[in-house]
User: Fold CDC20/Fizzy WD40 domain-containing protein from Aldrovandia affinis.
Amino acid sequence: MAQFTFENDMHSILKLDMPITNAPVARWQLKANSSASVSANTSTPGKAGNRPLSTSKTPSRTPGKNGKGQSTPFKVGGDRYIPTRNPQQMGVASFLISRENEPVDPNASQEIQRAWSVNLNGYDIEESKILHFAGKPLNAPEGYQNNLKVLYSQASTPASTKKFRYIPSVPDRILDAPDLVNDFYLNQIDWSSQNILAVALHSSVYLWNASQGGITLLMMMEKEDDYISSVSWIKEGNYLAIGTSDHKVQLWDVENQKRLRCMASHSARVGALSWSNHVLSSGSRSGHIHHHDVRVPDHHIFTLTGHSQEVCGLKWSPDGKHLASGGNDNLVFVWPGVQDGTTQTATHQFDYHQGAVKALAWCPWQPNILASGGGTSDRHIRIWNVNSGSCISSLDTQSQISSLVFAPNYKELVSGHGFSKDCLTIWKYPSMTKVAELSGHEGRVLNLTMSPDSSTVASLAADETIRLWKSFEQDPAKKKASERKTQSTSSFLHQGIR
Assistant:
């Protein structure tokens, strides 16, 4: 019996039904008491001290690590909130994600769905979503402006809408040029503003209408040994100047197929021609350049002397202020515009080239910029500023340069080459980086000319073919705008030529 009494006493002691009066205070009670005292001391007058019991005295940062050697003031309250969900809620959330893209029953309203969820699950199913917002975002106040910069936008930018330019590697059309005189120093092709291509084939001049495709024989030399050495259209495109091997310059009315006059002043063949309004300039194998005023009977008004050998390149600037000439003496001269009653002297003389200079081209959008190309011994394209007389850039093309033309639609320069490439090269101006190389000719390229809309360049080569390269087709919107501005005008020389 004594043993059972002892066991009963031990069980009653171990149950601890009654509090131990002399035991130390528990840690959770100390925290609760200290939190209550802090809330009472920090409460603002007029506001209830409703701080939670879980207030911690632990500072939010380690003292002395805020960059100023001072401890960070501690904030009352916890630093994060960890939500609690039972496993059933997590399963429901996973189920909702799997059915997120399924259509919603239009007959079931939100209140009915909420009631079903409470009856089946014991809680609202919307509260079990993993990403859940308590309410809709507030509307911005009236007059609010967001000054933040937009880093990304779905709106198309000019760079993204820029179309890729396709340059065909084959010509758009090939024309036969039989009996062509294979002479580097001649200029045997020119394209008029009325879209007619004039080609000199030995002793004949043919006209090809690029709009309609018709071919017309304009004229033939009387003697079989004579040949056509140069052709050049007036700006309006209704008169054609023809230089011949018998030292003469003929002027033809193309529409009526009638020769208006034959001007004789040179002592050798006329290999280069260029127009400036009513003044026709002609360059001869003698090295002389003559100015002809086609309005008056005594047409020869000036003679320019500077070249010691044949003049094979002759170009007036678009504004008519400068005339550029290139010769077999490797020189380039820049002459001033025609001034009545004054002696003509060269403004600049460039002697940088080491070969014959036949290729000359003025920049259409920069009238003071001249491009020149050298022959086999030189092979360089040089860009000149005729106002200052300086050479802006020089490029070694590794091939003979026979002709140069500017393409204003894309601000590019096209060069025609002989030995050893026999091709056309497109260069970006003014960087002079190669854009494309157009191959196909089986002989050296002799002449280049640009179409009136500047979309196609025609190349005449020693393989007796003319190839049309449609490499500069203009954007349709810009093309329509330029066509509206272009108006057909008749030449003011129609009544003045005698």
